[in-house]
Batch of 2 targets.
Target 1
Amino acid sequence: MAELLSVKNLETRFRTREGVVHAVNGVSFKLNEGETLGIVGESGCGKTVSVLSILRLIPMPPGEIISGSVDFQGKDLLKLSPEELRHVRGAQIGFVFQDPMTSFNPVLTIGRQLMEPLEIHLGMNKQQAWDRAVELLNMVQIPNAADRLKDYPHQFSGGMRQRAMIAMALSCSPQVLIADEPTTALDVTIQAQIIELVKSLRDELGMAIIWITHDLGVVAGLAERVNVMYAGYVVEESKVKDIYQSPEHPYTLGLLRSLPRLDMEEKKRLISIEGVPPVLFKIPKFCPFVSRCTYRMEKCLQENPPLLPVGKDHKAACWVNTRTGEVRQ
C-alpha cells in the first residue's frame, strides 16, 4: 500500500501558569492508503493533541508546535498558509470530534452545517448541497433524512449526533478520516453500531482512518496497526494481532491486564496500573513510565529508551524484555 500520511518528530507544548507542559514529544507514525491506524492510551497521554497538531487545530496560544513535519501528498501541513490549510481540512482530511454536542453549532440546523463544507470546498449551489446532505444522512443510516436536516443538534440523540458528525466529516469524500474517541459518550449498543458503520463506510469509500481511543477492545475489531501512547511518547507500535499476542512494553501489558476477558476465570480480579501519569513540565531524561513499572531497573532511571525493534514491524520503547526480565540487547 502507498504511504498517504507521514508524521515525523512532532513536538507540541502548552504554556500554562504552572509552567510549560510538554504534551507531545517527538511522535512519529505513518498511515497507508485504505489503512486503519489505532492510537490508544489513557486520558492525558497526548493522543488528541497529536492529531489536532497535524491540522494545526490546537489553540495557539497557549499551544505551540515546536518541531516536526506532517507530509501529506508531498506537502508539509505544518508549513502551509492558513488559506492552503483550509482547503485540506474537511476536504482531504475529515475530523470526527470527541463530543458531538459541543462540535455542532447549537443555533444552526444540521442541514445548514452539513451544506456549508459542500458549498465551500466543492462549489455546490444550495440545491446540490441539500441533495448531497440528504444522501449523506441516508449513508449514515439516519431515517427521514430530508426532514431531519431541518432539525437542530439538540433534537438529535447522542448516537444520531455522532452519525451526523461522521456524515459531515465524509461530506467531501476525504482520503483520511480522523476519529477522536467518537464512541466515548455513547452506550455500548450505540458504540457497536457506530463502529460497524465506520467499518462499512471505510470498505465502501476506501479511505484511511486514524482512530483514537482508550479502549483496546475497539481497536481489536477495527484497526490493522496500533500505536500505544504514554506521557506524550509512542511507547509501542505494531500490528494489532501482535499487541494482543505479545505486548512488549510494560504499559501495554498493564492495559491488557486491566481488560475483562471472556476466557478469564470468574473470580479472577482485574489488575490495575498503580499510580498516575506524570505532568511533564520537563522532558524526562528517564523512562516516563518508571514510577509505575514493575520491571524497572537502574538503566530505566538514567535514560529514556527510544523505540527499539523487538520483532517484525514491532517496536517498543523499553530497556527490559518483559518476557525474560533481562535488558534488551
Target 2
Amino acid sequence: MKPLKDSKRTLLKPHLLSVEELSIPEIDILLNKANFYADANRQKGKIEKTLKGSTVITLFFETSTRTKTSFELAAKRLGADSIGINASTSAIKKGETLIDTAMTLNAMHADILIVRHPDSGAVKLLSEKVNCAVINAGDGTHEHPTQALLDALTIKRNKKNIKGLNIAICGDVLHSRVARSNILLLSKLGARIRIIAPPTLIPKGIENLGVEIFNNMEKGLINCDIVMMLRLQTERMKGLYVPSTREYFKFYGLDHKKLKNAKKDALIMHPGPMNRGIEIDSSLADNLDRSVIHQQVEIGVAVRMACLEMLTVGIDK
C-alpha cells in the first residue's frame, strides 16, 4: 500500500471484500466521493489523475460486461495503468492454482487487484496472499460490494434519502450475491427490505438478516418505493427451481399490472444483464420515467472510481 502524504485523506480499508465490513461513516465517505465523480463524469473538464503511476489488474474467472468495463474505465479516468487478465486464456486453464496465480500477480507489484470468482470466499483467500489492495468484484453467491454501493447511490440521487424506504428485492435471491450485498448495505442505511421470490429461490435463514419474505409478488410490492429485479441465474441451478420461464414471468416477472401495487413513483432497478420477458417486461425496463437501470450503469463507473481512490491514495474525510 502507498503511504499517505496528506493527513486530510484517509484509507478506509486495506481491501474491499464485503459491505458487511464497512461502517456507516465509511459508506457515507465513499458515496459522497462517488457522487462527486458522477457529476464530474458528465462534464468535459479534466478529472484529477489521482491514480497516476498506479497499476490496476482485473482478474475475472466469470464473464462480465458492466463490472469489468466500468472498473477499467474508472482506472483510466483516474490515470492508472489498467491490465485485464482473461482467466479462460491464462495459465489457470493449464492447471495453475488460485494461490499460484496470486503469487505471480504479486510479483508484478500491482497496486490494486480486482477479482471475480465463482466460489464464495475465493477473493478473500487471494487477498491474504498478495501485498496489494484487493476488490471483490463478485465471489460466488457471497457478495458483490461495489454493485450494492452503486445501487445505494442511484437510490440516493433519485430519492434523496434511503432511510425509511421500502425496497423490494425480487427474483432469484438464492443465487444472488447482489441481493445479499444490497440487503446488508441498504439495511445499514435504514431501508426496510422485502424479499419476493418463490420458496425454491429463497435462501435458508435469510430472515435472520431482518428482511420480510413474500411469496406473492402483488402483496410484496404494496407501498414499495424501489423495485429491484434480479436475473434468473440458470447457470448456477442444479435441478428444477421453477416450472418454466413462462410460469416464472407470470408470477414473478415485473409487468405493468404487478407494478401498480407499488407506489406511483416507485423506481425500477436491475443489476443486469436483463432477461427481458422472464424477470421484467421490456416496456418497463425501457421506461425512463420509472426505470433507473441505465443510471445504475453510469453511476457504477463513479462508485468504482471512488473505491479505487480509497484503496490507493485515500479520499477526503
